[in-house]
Amino acid sequence: MTPSFDITVRSTPQAEGAISDLASIVNGPLLTHFDELRATARTLTDPESWDGRGATEFRTTIWPGYERTLTELHARLDQLRTRLAEIQNEIQSAG
Fold this sequence. Notes:
The chain has 95 residues and is mostly helical. Helix content is 77%, strand content 0%.
């Protein structure tokens, strides 16, 4: 005989709100701030606007890594948003 386990599922209005808030932040203001960072950095990566040894290092070595990180972070946060929505759907279906 297989033992049965009672599993409690719960999704409070606060949890549902938090999932919605996270999705709104990731796809709203956070994405907007990432775009603003990129736009600002474009000015600093333009040798006609900013040049010199340190500026060249920023343009060729420093900023590209940070820009990649921003892109990867947004993608990962979007995956998190998607997964949270899936979990919420699973909880709603189970409950």
